[in-house]
Structure formats: C-alpha cells, structure tokens
Amino acid sequence: MMQEDALFKSQKKKKLIPPNRHGKVPQTRKGKKFVKPSKVTKEMDVDQDLSKFINHCNEIKAATVAQKDGVSRIFLSP
Known about the structure:
By secondary structure, the chain is mostly helical.
C-alpha cells in the first residue's frame, strides 16, 4: 500500500497558518467524564468489595516489606 504523499507528487497539502491567539493559552482537550451507572447491580458491589480487599492486602504487604527494611510507611486511605 502506497503512502499518501507519494501518490501525487504535484498535489501536496498546503501548510495551514495557525490562528493568532494574542496571548491566549491553547485549548486543552480533556478526557471523558466518569458517569456512575444508574443501576448498581450485585455484581458491581461484589467487584468493588473485591478490589477494596485486594488493595488493602497489597498495602499490608507493602507495609510489612517496608518494616523489614527499617523504613516506616503510613498509608492513608480515604
């Protein structure tokens, strides 16, 4: 498959002149907002509880490893 630029050498894209901003900050595109589902099912609750449990276990493991090294770490949970 050929590249676009190599198809027609006589027809090239013209360079666009950027808009004059006059000191304005360029607009940043933001990601999609997280929308909570209207219906919360039992599976969602189970998944949330499971992920909380796994995170808690990981924090405990990291704290024990840090204590073995002689460094004390404090985990703040929201």
